[in-house]
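Request: How about a record?
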Amino acid sequence: MALDQYKEEEKEEGMSFLDHLEALRWHLLRSVSAVLILTVIAFLAKSIVFGVIILGPSKVDFITYRLFCDLGNYLGVAALCIEELPFTLQSREMTSQFSMHMTSSLVVGFIVAFPYLFWEVWRFISPGLYDQEKNAAQGAVFFVSFLFFLGAAFGYFVLAPMSINFLSNYQLDPTIINEFDISSYISTLTMLVLASAIMFQLPVVVYFLSKSGLVTAAMLRSYRRHAIVVILIISAVITPPDVISQILIAMPILMLYEAGVQIAKRLEKQKAVKRAADDLEEEENA
């Protein structure tokens, strides 16, 4: 926002710089309170959060493994049935279980509270936007939250179980037993879920960049090969060191990139139609 407009709105609204800081403080306070409340609820619901959600992908009766087994039975491919996850979870430090309980509850609280957090952020920045920018960002809270949960669900139900299955079955030698520390298991699961949730925001990023004129559909198409390389590198960084996990997260991101190309193309058509209508109106007025 331009400085002159900021000063003008500041006069109209009667808000000084300190008033804006005070507003920001309350937005942050409400956001933190929401996360803390949900964190406490998750902490108290230990049997559900840990026994069902967090430890779910470590059990052979997890829904993803059962669906793959049903698919394998239908196709006649017995290899798709996962009958065993050859690893055990251990806690090798005295404070490990309690600290992981606290950390996991905080992550769950953040994920559940994300729509409210983004809504608070939007409430703070929206008064400083132009009317045109507000119109362009209509539905931002819904779409950002939807893509966030969609990415988190993909990371939890697809990426995490496939990664856990691969890593638990990977052995350098049959004499080596897989005994994973609980902190390693939870940190891997958290990284996969949050990384997927963040990466699924790609269409939103492309939308705003295209709306501001920083990227075009032609530009996205011309840099498609470069984007594929970057996506593969990012997938290798945010996933465990196995090819399957990298491919699993790279494929939907590539699809989202192509969706971004179509979004940019549609916005360019809308701009062209609006520009033609404005030119026609000017000619009629002249």
